[in-house]
Design a protein that fits this description.
Layout: H1 2-16, H2 23-44, H3 46-52, E1 54-62, E2 66-69, H4 71-81, E3 87-97, E4 103-115, E5 121-135, E6 138-143
Parallel strand pairs: 1-6
Antiparallel strand pairs: 1-2, 3-4, 4-5, 5-6
Helix pairs in contact: 2-3, 3-4
Length: 144
């Protein structure tokens, strides 16, 4: 069964990637999407940004074992779990792309900071990993 699943995944990747993409151009597109995503999070809030850039079937992992599935559920999660005074920033350290240019992944460091009631800002850092797919000429994340 496992061998069959792997074979099917490899065959679907081969069939779906018939034409090689300009990987540097695709990396630039993905970086631009990451920066637009970050900018929207700063200007319109984390919930709106995570909603806007999500694919319909996107999944996010929060905590050690909490999967939030689907664009609407992701927006609901962020709407109720993110402090409105929070700031989130990140920068990809690496961008990898599929040979056909329709899938990509990024990883890097993020900084999440919040002001407390006295105005003191505390920050938390971590590592993010995002998987992107191109839908109708637009990059949407499917995993974060």
């Amino acid at each position: 069964m496992k061998k069959t699943l792997i074979t099917m995944l490899v065959l679907s990747a081969i069939v779906s990637c018939r034409k090689a993409a300009d990987t540097e151009a695709v990396k630039n597109e993905v970086m631009l999407s990451e920066k637009e995503f970050e900018k929207m999070a700063a200007e319109k809030g984390v919930a709106e940004a995570f909603y806007y850039f999500a694919a319909e079937d996107a999944v996010i992992l929060r905590g050690n074992d909490s999967l939030i599935k689907g664009k609407e559920s992701i927006k609901a999660y962020y709407s109720s779990n993110v402090n409105p005074n929070a700031e989130l920033s990140w920068t990809p350290d690496f961008i990898g792309v599929s040979s056909c240019g329709t899938l990509a992944y990024t990883y890097g460091r993020y900084v999440y900071s919040v002001k407390d009631s006295s105005g003191k800002r505390t920050s938390r850092t971590g590592i993010f990993h995002t998987v992107w797919k191109k839908e109708n000429k637009t990059w949407r994340y499917v995993w974060d």
